[in-house]
Design a protein that fits this description.
Oligomer: homotetramer
Shape of chain A: elongated
Largest interface: C-D, 78 and 79 residues
Protein name (chains A, B, C, D): Glutaminase
CATH superfamily of the largest domain in chain A: DD-peptidase/beta-lactamase superfamily
Helix content of chain A: 40-55%
CATH topology of the largest domain in chain A: Beta-lactamase
Number of helices of chain A: 14
Order of helices and strands of chain A: HEEEHHHHHHHEHHHEEEHEEHEHE
Number of strands of chain A: 11
Strand content of chain A: 15-25%
Enzyme class (chains A, B, C, D): hydrolase
Subunit structure (chains A, B, C, D): Homotetramer.
Strand order of the largest sheet of chain A: 2-1-7-6-5
EC number (chains A, B, C, D): 3.5.1.2
CATH class of the largest domain in chain A: Alpha Beta
GO molecular function, one term (chains A, B, C, D): glutaminase activity
Distance between the termini of chain A: 48 Å
Number of domains of chain A: 2
Largest sheet of chain A: 5 strands, antiparallel
Chain lengths: ~375, ~375, ~375, ~375
């Protein structure tokens, strides 16, 4: 496949870079992880996240659906009943999304998107003017999409401005290190991996990841989910990012593209990561141990020890046991061995504790202050 | 929506049942969780899993793709280039799948599928003859699909037999308790929630869950992933099952259907579960604590404590720290506070331990024998 | 292209036959014009005509549309809003049409269609049992279509019966001489070319020809109209018939098929006929002479001579001249040089004559009794 | 339906005009036949004819197909394999066609199209600037189509220029009288109805009429052919033209549109014309008389009289009779009663005459010099 952009054509097809960033803030790189290229379509989920923040989910949903399209990235069709693009990760959707990013003009909107991505990447990302100009030379297809959206009443800005801004957004220069950092933030629920700052709202992050899971690899999204199982997004410059929620962000770069317009080596790397490292969303570790570590007595008190990562199911086991009642007057809920706890589990445990307090002296050992929440 | 099956039409639309089964084997029920109904399309993922075991992934892939269709459950189209149905969860795919389940005839194949599901449900499930006969009365659409598959060279059995067998499979009687148990096995990576038995091969389980995630709710799969985020499958009798990997299996039953043919109250329940209990695949708990609990010295030895649920990313942190080297001669790797560990993490930790052993006296405290694996 | 029917596969691909029958009853033949083959899809327009007689246009229109499909002959889709096949000349439509032919069963219906075609061909046509049986062996696609129609509520008969009957209809043996005779009847407005018998009702004949013009050559109908300009229908045995209204019926037979399933030499012959003999519906002979041959005086009377083939436009010229008035007391309308006259022209001339009679002595010279009508 | 053009919205929906022009040059009008409106889509066949003259059929065919689309006039799709619009009468095709009209810029091309139409209408037609400007205000859909064509490599001009030029072309002011005159020229094989001037090349005229027959009424072309049977084209201002080859050109104007965007009263008028005046292409007058009027002897010579309108079929009857031989030495071929004769018939009669001359003294009575040709 050729890219139709002369700036992209001049790149060494054998280049290869890889970066893996964990939610703990550690980053591993291999090859030319600092080689810079244009972000292209990988900008779509980040622009989508920004538009969701600026415009709100409801307004976005009225403009762009969230269904896999079953067609190519540049399909020129809107939903027959609603006039919406099928999702925000095909070109039609990406243009509609830009329209809902706040900004005074194309340049300003592109600037805000670049700033947003810079915050995630941890360094200043800027538009590559040569790539931008080359984009504009071959923009008839996007012009067609923008005018189509406009004629369907789905675009407020002028088509020219939207296409110009999208060209700028696609021309932002990044490297694998940047993209892995950005992906790791999404893997971390939108929170920075190096501070407590929530860079992307949790609900928005979840929504964007969901759309990446079902629509991110265009008309191959279903097979990608089966064989790789990592929500992902590819760009025509030869990069692919992947986000494994709660674990890692991955970015690969290698310019040679396959028929679907995805990086040949990029796809291979993801398939290996999924197979060899079990980085697959549907991969389950059958539980060897319960979240309920132990229920015992110590010094006349019942000690209930929880352990590991506590979500709803884990908290339920505790609640279930509590229903059976405890013989002692005093109860100690020991969270020392718990690593993380989510909101639903926190609420449930707090409720149980309050209920127990009616009849028992109840204390909680929570050295990491997990029950206090974030 | 009407179902076209007179047996289904006679049911009280206000019936409601709910069951939630955790991967720990606990099951919660509400309403008419023991009211029996026909499994209908919810049989599809389980028949698919059996066909994958009997025929192998490669053979299945040659017959059925794994892409969302963007169309209705009964769409009468095959991929123009390959002649395959788009996925195994639309009717065309379900019929093609049946063809690859071993068996001497339609009855035998249906029997094997019923037995397979019985193992997961933990009780004997049988075909409801009245429902089966009513299915056959309105089977023209499935007959059309089966003949189409046959004419495309994608069916070895006679179309009549395939349609007959599919009618039997859909007429198997279940209740919410059964379905939640079956879903919980999938949530548990295919392993029984009450014993160590691997009921569904892990790879097959992962594949089926992936297809449920992208294709399970037909042409609404994308929005289902965004708003609910639980791989699911609905049936025309009014049931929906959901599988949250590593956590729970859920089954709801309520006969009133919406326009898409999904249970109205079933959809509402799943939306609440997702929202209130954060049972969403893309929901991430930003890490409060590292998998690396502590690195300290005790009695002249370095003690490295890991904690929580250890996957690749967690093990990487340990490996990364190990690369920096340790000052003491003796090293203790303490896994006492680890709840579960997956294969990739196990391999990585084992490698690091072996490398450390070259220069250090290295011991592992692993009371639950997690490093020994299953 | 292969035909999927082993009886058709065994034919010498080099066979060639041609027959041209004029509306005057003359027939010219070349090559193997008496070589017999199965009529296949060329039976569709004749079965359509019979169903239109049995069921009436309104009933047929509720079941089958009359629009080009833009797809292949065996497309497996119905109109999304009405559930109708796009037209009667694709397989789905031909099956729906059969349902509206009167008859007690498949055999009887096929018998009636064979009899109808025999009347047009002028000899007894019968089903070739070997071809019929071979059709049934590869009927999955038609089974699919029939079941689809049934499931859409568009079929009263059992799908099996409809497919069986269609297989019989397609297996009727004909030769080029037969087909040219049949086509010539259609070219002659449905009237026999050798007697005054109206074999196909004029309105029905017009309707069927219209559908042949826009849908007869499947997804190549538009280009066929441009390059050939003759309403036509092809069959998979290698025959093509063409009907040029008012002029000729043509039949070509040569078994080698092109990609579209049309006879290679058949297409070539039609292209030559159209080009060399100007047998193109849109070919116009710019008028050298008016239908109004002369207006003169003879023996004190005004003599108005008409000539040639008089349709609406020709009669209008006469009416227009009559409006200007005539100076003489006596008027002679001379139709001696008129060859044919249609109903609209007859009505108009009669009206003018009656109007003239109010003020003039008006006589008509009409040796062929054209004004008396048929 | 609304037109999206504010200039069109302000027109009295009850206006009605009708004009019928015969190939003999007579024109009948009724109602507001001189009320002027914008030609809109009715310009398409005339611009197509001009592009065919400028660019040649082969070049046009490489850019625009000639197949019915089965979709709406403004469908935004190109053929997946060739990138061509389906035909020249949908908007995509009309834009592609403009690109092949010679001219220095949009204004010049529109000027040439206006001049071409002026020649047919017999008076100077000019662009209505108010309509043109209103067109430009709502041109997003056409912009989308033009950019799509450009991106598919099917457009040489700038999209802006093509859309601007098309807006001008659509804004040309006409009345029913004009349109009927223009249609009559097409009905007359491209020749002026008042002089011997060939205004549209015969081959091009035939091609354009063919496309009007199969594609002129968009996705209702098949039913239009069945019920009306007149190649036609409608415009969003409320006009419809029809061309019955060899007979008449018809134009109706009435602004109220139906769901398909066709004039409600316009459609009704055409249905009545077709039914009451038998103005249907597939309407056949079964021949009462042969083209061979008589074969007799007079003064020792055989006199062969032909009559009426002689095409291929008629000439064949003569040729057939000639093959049987004549007993006399002298033969007279009498064409006095022949009205018109086409090229194929002329060639055949000339050949037969030459053959007869080898053995007979052969003379031709041809007072209108029909055998000499045009």
């Amino acid at each position: 496949m050729t890219t139709g952009n002369r700036q992209l054509e001049n790149v060494d097809p054998e280049l290869f870079g890889l970066a893996v960033a964990t939610v703990d803030g550690t980053i591993y790189t291999a090859g030319e992880a600092n080689h810079e290229f244009s972000i292209q379509s990988i900008s779509k989920p980040f622009a989508y996240a920004l538009a969701l923040r600026d415009g709100g989910l409801e307004r976005l949903e009225a403009r762009v659906d969230a269904e896999p399209s079953g067609e190519k990235f540049n399909e020129i069709s809107l939903e027959s009943d609603t006039g919406r693009p099928r999702n925000a990760l095909i070109n039609a959707g990406a243009l509609a999304v830009r329209d809902l990013v706040d900004g005074t003009d194309a340049r300003h909107r592109a600037q805000r998107i670049a700033e947003e991505m810079s915050r995630l990447a941890g360094r200043d990302l800027v538009v590559d003017d040569q790539v931008y100009e080359a984009e504009l030379e071959a923009d008839d297809h996007n012009q067609a999409l923008a005018h189509l959206l406009r004629s369907a009443g789905q675009l407020d800005c002028a088509p020219d401005e939207v296409v110009d801004g999208y060209a700028r957004q696609c021309a932002i220069g990044v490297d694998c290190h940047d993209l892995a950092m950005m992906a790791a933030v999404m893997a971390n629920g939108g929170m920075s991996t190096s501070s407590d700052e929530q860079l992307i709202d949790g609900q928005i992050n979840r929504h964007v990841l969901s759309v990446m899971a079902t629509c991110g690899m265009y008309n191959g999204s279903g097979n990608w989910m089966s064989t790789v199982g990592i929500p992902a997004k590819s760009g025509v410059a030869g990069a692919i990012i992947g986000v494994l929620p709660g674990q890692v962000g991955v970015a690969v770069f290698s310019p040679r593209l396959n028929q679907q317009g995805n990086s040949v080596r990029g796809v291979a790397v993801f398939e290996r990561l999924s197979r060899d490292m079990e980085l697959h969303m549907m991969h389950v570790i059958p539980t060897g141990r319960s979240a309920l570590r132990s229920v015992g007595e110590r010094d006349g008190a019942t000690v209930v020890e929880l352990q590991g990562d506590i979500r709803f199911a884990g908290a339920e086991i505790f609640a279930s046991r509590a229903c059976e009642g405890f013989a002692t007057d005093e109860i100690v809920i020991d969270l020392s061995e718990v690593r993380v706890i989510d909101d639903a589990a926190r609420r449930l445990i707090t409720e149980v504790r309050e209920r127990l307090s009616e009849d028992h002296r109840t204390t909680v050992q929570d050295p990491a202050r997990l029950l206090a929440g974030r």
